[in-house]
Design brief:
Elements (H helix, E strand, L loop, with lengths): L2 H8 L2 H8 L1 H12 L34 E8 L4 H4 L4 H5 L34 E4 L4 E4 L3 H4 L6 E7 L5 H10 L9 H9 L9 E7 L26 E3 L17 H22 L2 H24 L6 H7 L9 H13 L4 E7 L10 H22 L6 E6 L3 E2 L17 E2 L3 E7 L6 E3 L1 E2 L6 E3 L2 E2 H11 L9 E3 L2 E3 L15
Parallel strand pairs: 1-7, 1-8, 4-12, 4-15, 5-6, 5-7
Antiparallel strand pairs: 2-3, 4-11, 8-11, 9-10, 13-14, 16-17
C-alpha cells in the first residue's frame, strides 16, 4: 500500500480535526510574529497614527476616544460613605438603628446576616467641598481632593455580588464565576498590541504594609478565559526579575538564546503546521515576546531618568518596588511605551474592624500616587488618550459592624447596592458627579450604573461596540457584558 494512503488510514478523528484547523493557526501565527502580516491591520486614522499588531480586522467599530486604560483596582471594597459620598444624615443617626425599609429583603454577607436593627455609623473623617465643581471628599483623601475638577465621580454604582472574589471577577470579566476573559484580555484580543516589545496587558499587585485585611490576588483576575492564553495579562512581580526568567542564566549570552529560540520556533512551527493548535502559536509568540522583554523591561523599570519633581509627586514610596506608588509610575511608563491596558490591584480595603486604624494607612498609601498619576499623565499630554479608573468591587455598609462603644474596632461590612468610583481622562466629562445614593448611602437613588454599564462604557471609549465584540465558545457567542449593559453617554465628553 502507498505509504501516504497507509498514513491516512491510521489518522484518528482527533488528528483529522486538528489538521483541519491548520490554516487558522498559521494565520494567527503570522499576526503574532509580523505586524505587516497581521490580518487586516487597522488604519493610522483609527489608531492615532500607530500600527497595531494583531487585533480583529473590523475593529475599532467607532472612533476611539482613548488608546489606553489604567485601572487602579482597590481590592476589598473602599468605604464610599467615608471617602467620597457625603451623607450628613449618617451623623444625625449615629448609633441609632437603621430606619425601616432601607434594607428590607437585601442580602448581606454572613458576617451581617439580617441587617435590620444594625446601628448607623457616622463618617470617620469630616467631608469638605473642593474645586470649582464642589465635589465632596473626606479628609482621608487630601491629594485626590485637589484634582476633583479633573475627575468624574459615579456615585450610583451597583453590583450583583456581596463577596470579594465573585464581585471582583464580575467587575473585571462580566461573570461571577472564573473562566471568562477579563477586560484587558478582551482589549488585547480585539484591538491587538501597539508595542512590539511589551505586552498589551500588564498587571501589578500591591498591599499596604502591616494590613490585616488583605485579599488574595487570583490569577483569573487577569485571565484570558476561553480566549487563547496569549491574551491574558502579564504580571510584573515586586521582587527579583519583574517577569520570571527575564535574565539569562550564567554562561548564556543573548546570541546563544536567540539561536535556541529560532531552533525552538522551527520545531514548534512544525507541530503547529501539523495540528493547528492556537496554543502552539501562543507559545511561539510568547517566547519571542519574552526575548524582546529582556531588553525592554530593564529600561522600563529603570527610574533613574525620572526627575526629582516627578518622584516627589508620587510620594516617598515611589522607588520601593512592590508599592502602589511605584506601580503607578510604572503604569505611566507602560502606556508611554504602547501598553494598552494596565491593571493595578491594591489590597487592604476590607475594613471590617479597622476603619479608625488601617483605613488611614490604606489612604496614605494610595491617595497621593493616584492623584499624581492623573497629574503626570496630563503634564505629558497622555491624559487625553488614557482613561484612569479608580474603584473597588463594591462599597461598605453605612451601618456599623462591631461594637459602637469600641471605637478602635469600628468596621463596615460589604455593600453592593451603592458605591462610588471615579474616572479621569479622555472622553470623560471632568468635574462631574453622576448619579447618587439615597440619604443614607444604602441604595441608588438616581442614575444607577451597573457593572455591565461600566464595562460597556469602557469598551465604547476604546472604539468598541460591546455587543459586537464576541467570541464563540461552547456553542454560543460570549461578550464581556454578557447579554446586558448600556453605555453611560451622560458622562462622555
Amino acid at each position: 500500500m502507498n505509504p501516504l494512503q497507509h498514513n491516512d488510514l491510521l489518522t484518528t478523528r482527533r488528528q483529522l480535526l486538528s489538521m483541519a484547523g491548520t490554516g487558522v493557526g498559521t494565520a494567527a501565527l503570522a499576526s503574532l510574529l509580523n505586524g505587516d502580516l497581521a490580518a487586516g491591520p487597522v488604519s493610522d486614522s483609527q489608531t492615532h497614527g500607530a500600527q497595531t499588531l494583531g487585533g480583529l480586522p473590523d475593529l475599532p467599530h467607532l472612533s476611539p476616544k482613548i488608546k489606553n486604560i489604567i485601572y487602579l483596582f482597590q481590592n476589598g471594597g473602599p468605604t464610599h460613605v467615608d471617602l467620597f459620598d457625603h451623607k450628613p444624615q449618617l451623623s444625625k443617626l449615629h448609633g441609632q438603628p437603621i430606619p425601616a425599609g432601607f434594607v428590607d429583603g437585601k442580602r448581606f454577607s454572613t458576617m451581617t446576616g439580617n441587617a435590620s436593627g444594625k446601628l448607623m455609623l457616622a463618617p470617620v473623617e469630616p467631608f469638605r467641598q473642593h474645586g470649582e465643581c464642589g465635589a465632596t471628599v473626606s479628609g482621608f483623601m487630601p491629594h485626590t481632593a485637589k484634582i476633583v475638577d479633573k475627575l468624574c465621580f459615579i456615585k450610583g454604582m451597583h453590583t450583583d455580588q456581596v463577596n470579594h472574589a465573585p464581585a471582583i471577577q464580575f467587575l473585571l470579566s462580566g461573570s461571577q464565576i472564573p473562566g471568562r476573559p477579563t477586560l484587558g484580555a478582551w482589549l488585547n484580543y480585539g484591538l491587538g498590541n501597539e508595542a512590539e516589545d511589551l505586552p498589551a496587558f500588564v498587571v501589578m499587585t500591591s498591599i499596604s504594609k502591616g494590613t490585616s485585611c488583605g485579599q488574595i490576588f487570583y490569577d483569573f483576575y487577569w485571565g484570558s478565559g476561553f480566549l487563547p492564553s496569549r491574551f491574558q495579562g502579564v504580571k510584573f512581580r515586586s521582587g527579583g526579575d519583574p517577569v520570571l526568567y527575564l535574565s539569562n542564566p550564567k554562561g548564556v549570552t543573548r546570541d546563544m538564546r536567540r539561536g535556541w529560540l529560532d531552533d525552538l520556533a522551527r520545531l514548534n512551527q512544525m507541530k503547529l503546521d501539523q495540528h493547528g493548535d492556537p496554543e502552539i502559536a501562543t507559545r511561539i509568540a510568547q517566547y519571542e515576546m519574552g526575548f524582546k522583554m529582556q531588553a525592554s523591561v530593564p529600561e522600563l523599570t529603570d527610574l533613574s531618568g525620572e526627575s526629582k519633581q516627578t518622584l516627589e509627586m508620587y510620594g516617598p514610596d515611589v522607588t520601593e518596588r512592590g508599592t502602589f506608588a511605584h506601580n503607578c509610575l510604572l503604569a505611566r511608563r507602560l502606556v508611554e511605551r504602547g501598553t494598552r491596558c494596565v491593571q493595578l490591584m491594591h489590597a487592604g480595603w476590607d475594613q471590617h474592624n479597622s476603619l479608625t486604624t488601617e483605613l488611614y494607612n490604606q489612604c496614605r498609601d494610595t491617595d497621593q500616587s493616584s492623584a499624581a498619576l492623573v497629574r503626570d499623565l496630563e503634564q505629558r499630554g497622555l491624559l487625553e488618550e488614557t482613561l484612569v479608573v479608580w474603584g473597588g468591587e463594591f462599597g461598605r455598609t453605612p451601618f456599623l459592624q462591631g461594637d459602637i462603644n469600641n471605637r478602635p474596632r469600628w468596621g463596615r461590612d460589604h455593600h453592593p447596592y451603592a458605591f462610588t468610583i471615579w474616572l479621569a481622562g479622555g472622553g470623560i466629562k471632568p468635574g462631574l458627579t453622576y448619579g447618587a445614593s439615597d440619604e443614607l448611602g444604602i441604595n441608588v437613588a438616581e442614575n444607577g450604573v451597573h457593572v455591565h454599564d461600566l464595562q460597556a462604557t469602557l469598551l465604547h471609549l476604546m472604539g468598541i461596540d460591546h455587543e459586537r465584540l464576541t467570541y464563540r465558545f461552547q456553542g454560543r457567542q460570549f461578550r464581556l457584558t454578557d447579554v446586558h449593559g448600556d453605555v453611560v453617554h451622560a458622562i462622555l465628553s
